[in-house]
Amino acid sequence: MTIEHNTDATDDALGVRKLGHRAFVGGDGDLWQKIGRLQFEFMRARGLEPHHVLLDFACGSLRAGMHFIPYLNADNYLGFDKSIDLVILGVLNELGHEQFLARRPQFVLNGRFDLSEFTKQPDFAIAQSIFTHLTPQDIRRSLAGMAAIAAPHTQLFATFFRRDFEHTNPTESHSRLCFYYTAQEMHSFGVESGWKFEDIGAWDHPRGQMMGRYFRA
Q1: What pLDDT shows up at residue 1?
Q2: Mean pLDDT within 26-35
Q3: In this structure, which topology does domain 2-215 adopt according to CATH?
Q4: I want to staple 199 with a disulfide (CB 3.0 to 4.6 A). Which of 36, 183, 184, 205 is the partner?
């Protein structure tokens, strides 16, 4: 596990302590279970099997990880986030000590979108409700970071709030603010790092987030 201190993570830590590890990531109660399970079932429908390696980008408090980690073979879950508080609380309260030891998930924690310390290349990646909080610059950095560790066959599934026209978004990435993009903008963000983009569209997300697929070939 790699840990880097950064101001944003410190600010988020205060929010986590105030709201709790579930509410901070935008859903407690039924929403917590529904969105976590939705990601798991979606990825399985897209071909994820236990022998595959999965990157959970912005894994947070393991809302989806609590489903992915027991399903995947040991060492095949890669979790990336900037908040150590969320990951620790997710392991303790959602995954459990026994599953953590048995499945040996890898975590890299930093605010630079640097994934280089993972020891495996992902077959699949999911970025659920992270590009919805990032500026174009940070989305490009995220996609470049993932491209640096991707295999030629890696597929990345990422959610976004879609608009049919360009939207004036906040000027800085923020965990509690929403950003809206057109499908063409989502395509353009991946061009520099060699990603192609497919606009999948609706996937039954309770908050209306759309799904897109980035791929290399």
Answers
A1: 46
A2: 76
A3: Rossmann fold (3.40.50)
A4: 183
